[in-house]
């Protein structure tokens, strides 16, 4: 069981997944909020039934699974709907994440959470790490990755805390504006640091 929990976050398009995978290559287990968020609304789940009851059956695809694009459009154009969805899913996601973190066998475990600070999930971790890039680069990378409009990405960025506030809250920061070699170097340095912190926190016989 991992005694030390790191919270990894960053704005959309910042490269959280890339950074998380670099830590995973070092043998560190990941608990990904996005993966869990998909699990709690998969076909046949309690979460999906509640979403269908609230939004109507047109929020589903022909095979009965969630139409994510349609849901995203609804919640990012209506603040009250976004809050309703958050209130439904966040307790489910939080409970599953904590259970997974407690069962991790690596020296420490990383919770990968896009809205770590926004949803107060930083209270669950021992330390926070922010992956940082500029808002312009966020938009550019997300347009290239997801093939969505700049306006939609700008709405998502606006729904998250500001870059300045995120950096202010961070215990550690990774600058992801450069090359992959530089990114790996930053991850390796932090990994050694977190190993030392985890060792100091582990119970001694």
UniProtKB/TrEMBL annotation:
Protein name from the UniProt record: Dephospho-CoA kinase
Main location: cytoplasm
EC number: 2.7.1.24
InterPro entries per record: Depp_CoAkinase, P-loop_NTPase
Pathway listed: Cofactor biosynthesis; coenzyme A biosynthesis; CoA from (R)-pantothenate: step 5/5
UniProt gene name: coaE
Biological classification of the source: Bacteria, Pseudomonadati, Pseudomonadota, Gammaproteobacteria, Alteromonadales
Its biological purpose: Catalyzes the phosphorylation of the 3'-hydroxyl group of dephosphocoenzyme A to form coenzyme A.
Localization per Swiss-Prot or TrEMBL: Cytoplasm
Enzyme class: transferase
Gene Ontology terms: biological process: coenzyme A biosynthetic process
UniProtKB keywords: ATP-binding, Coenzyme A biosynthesis, Cytoplasm, Kinase, Nucleotide-binding, Transferase
